[in-house]
Amino acid sequence: MSSFQKLGLCCILTLSLSLQSCQSTAQINKLLEKAGQITGNPSTSEITMGLKEALEKGTGISADRLSLTDGYLKNLDVKIFFPEEAQQVEKTLRSLGLGSMCDQVITSVNRAAEDAAQEAKPIFTAAIKQMSFKDVQNILLGEQNAATTYFKSTTTDSLSAKFSPIVDTSLKKVDATKYWSDVMTRYNKVPFVKKVDTDLTAYVTGKAIDGLFIEIAKEELKIRESVGARTSPLLQKVFGYAETQKP
Question: Are 59 and 121 a contacting pair, CB within 8 Å?
Answer without folding.
Answer: yes
